[in-house]
Amino acid sequence: MSNTEKYSLNSAKVAEATNEWLLKRGVEKKAIAELVHFLQKDYFPDLTPQDCMIHVDAVLSKREVQNAVLTGIQLDILAEEGKLMAPLQDMIKHDESLYGCDEILALSIVNVYGSIGFTNFGYIDKLKPGILVRLNDKSDGECHTFLDDIVGAIAASAASRIAHRKQAEREGVTTPPLD
């Protein structure tokens, strides 16, 4: 693009890139839906993995979420390739415990779905079930400093979306909040 061409964001391409990069990094939406089910099955026993997938898709349709996914994955890849400047390179590559920007980026996702999202995120981030075990594993040479938190945040947000919708159903509200 030359300096004279006008920039115009293509939302469909951003959404497509988000899904593509998640897959390239080994994260299928089904694995995120499994985390959502893990978070909500005790509260809603009739909840199916397919129900959870609908909510994962809804979360991933949000621009704020897409921005966080694309940003975090790019930073992980740059760290994997050794392309960041010191000391940031080592902090991200080794998932330094006092480096909290990965959690802050993930919280930008959770923030879309209210305070229950924060508690869901904290819980799943501490337990690291399902795909989070693999993403948090440092032995395979891949860097997922941002992605493990982002995936947890997507799951926490989808779980929060379910909780809000179920409450709206109980109250007979036809337009649930936090769509």
From TrEMBL:
Gene3D superfamilies: PgpA-like. InterPro entries: PgpA-like_sf, Put_PGPase, YutG/PgpA. Coiled coil: none annotated. Residues 32-164 form the YutG/PgpA domain. It comes from the Bacteria. Transmembrane segments: none annotated. This is Phosphatidylglycerophosphatase A. It comes from Paenibacillus harenae.
